[in-house]
């Protein structure tokens, strides 16, 4: 199965029960707009962690009914992060939503050795993009967590993204290990990584999937460009996952597809015991809603 866009994904969730979601630092209008919209759509049942009176005031201004029992009072960012993670550990939620606090503060609580909820050796970020110029959703990784991944870290990042797509219902996701060229070049270590990951994919190390690499962005997303260049691969022009060689490349790619290309974006951190929505604190309510939608869709 392939997902064409966020609207198609939303339609698939109509008959599923809402998921319990913990919202860290929920005292923010855009976050609450997204959370309440997801609640109205039957996606989540939220527990709101943050400054109680501000949360209740924003809810009143938005004309949303809110039981005070659904609000867990917490003061500063560190307290909000710690209390939210503690609620997840206690089984009070199956997804974690980032509100008005720095990503680093939330993730520090997530990866805490004694009290955190880390589940994987390498946690990674996936930007999910609904781009007008592409025929289905794109999953760009990692533009937010691992700065300069080596081959072993790329294995974990790729596995996280492939598992994520399979959670969403993909039978055999297609992954492109992005490089500037399509051949192995000793001056470009990422090309050797791409070839190694392709070989491991063909060996079955990542489960049901197709991995291509090294491959350039145009060949991964443009079938006609691949045809003209004589590049033959089932991934060419039809990639689901774009594995970037560095955080800088992944961040630039995601933001260019979101901004200049007019795409819609959701952001998720993988590798914890539950999926975590991660958006900029300045992100619009719609972007935060799509991130909630993605996490709610995970089986």
Describe the structure.
The chain is an alpha/beta fold. The protein folds into 2 domains: 6-119 and 272-297, Rossmann fold; 126-258, Isopropylmalate Dehydrogenase (3-Layer(aba) Sandwich), CATH 3.40.718.10. It contains 11 helices and 11 strands. It has helices spanning 6-12, 29-40, 52-61, 77-89, 103-110, 151-167, 189-203, 217-221, 223-229, 247-258, 285-297, and strands at residues 19-24, 44-50, 71-73, 95-98, 124-130, 138-141, 174-178, 210-215, 241-243, 264-270, 276-277. It has an 11-stranded mixed sheet, with helices on both faces. Helix 1 (6-12) crosses helix 11 (285-297). The longest helix has 17 residues, at 151-167.
In short:
This protein has 299 residues and is α/β, with parallel strands linked by helices. The chain is 40% helix and 18% strand. The chain has 2 domains: 140 residues, 3-Layer(aba) Sandwich (Rossmann fold); 133 residues, 3-Layer(aba) Sandwich (Isopropylmalate Dehydrogenase).
Number of helices, counting only DSSP H or I runs of 4 residues or more: 11
Q: How many β-strand stretches?
A: 11
- Helices and strands, in order, run as HEHEHEHEHEEHEHEHHEHEEH
The percent of residues in helical segments reads 25-40%
Q: What percentage of the residues does DSSP assign to strands (E)?
A: 15-25%
Strand order across the biggest sheet?
3-2-1-4-11-10-5-6-9-7-8
